Amino acid sequence: GSSAEVYLVRENDTSGLYALKVIPKRKLSGSLLAIETVMAERNLLLDLRGNDFILQVRACFHDSRNFYLVTEYHPAGDLHTLLLMKGSRVDAVRFYMAELLIALEHIHSKRVVHRDVKPENVFIDIDGHIVLGDFGLARKLAAGQRTVSGNEMFGTPACSPGRPYGREVDIWAFGVMLYELITGRV
């Protein structure tokens, strides 16, 4: 997100590489809602642990200045880089998007809506499979949810202000993303 920076870090004991998301507390303006948002991302990722297509949390902690979230690192990059920058092939798009549907089905079965599905938030693991990440805007679904969030380009018409929304937000973004990956334009 715009209030966080992500660093590549190495664990001393194992030499394993991880992504460290650093969220400065000062950028949260002391807002209780902003702090709850950071904690919600952590809690959602912890709740979604165990699925190969969901970014896995390794640790989370804070000090007087920052919140920290340690997650898996995926050196192969993301779908945006892999397919849009290097050129997409229909068979590769079909493979990655099928896996993304499995990831979305999993989070939706846990009553979670991602709200920011886009190629830059779908990472590729070392074995060539997708990993859905960046749950900073994700929320646990509640009856009549009434907030709007996410990327304007991938947003659904169902998310107009004041209208309840649910899983359709992610499914709409999935469709826009599929179109973009196949045609190269939105």
Automatic annotation (TrEMBL):
**Which biological process terms from the Gene Ontology are attached to this UniProt entry?**
intracellular signal transduction
The reaction(s) catalysed by this protein are: L-seryl-[protein] + ATP = O-phospho-L-seryl-[protein] + ADP + H(+); L-threonyl-[protein] + ATP = O-phospho-L-threonyl-[protein] + ADP + H(+)
| Entry keyword set | ATP-binding, Kinase, Nucleotide-binding, Serine/threonine-protein kinase, Transferase
Q: What class of enzyme is it?
A: transferase
Transferase keyword on record: yes
Signal peptide positions are none
Question: Protein kinase domain: which residues?
Answer: 1-186
Keyword field contains ATP-binding? yes
Which GO molecular-function terms appear in the entry?
ATP binding; protein serine/threonine kinase activity
Q: What is its EC number?
A: 2.7.11.1
User: Which is a Pfam family this sequence falls into?
Assistant: Pkinase
Taxonomic superkingdom: Eukaryota
Q: What is this protein called?
A: non-specific serine/threonine protein kinase
Native source species:
Lactarius akahatsu
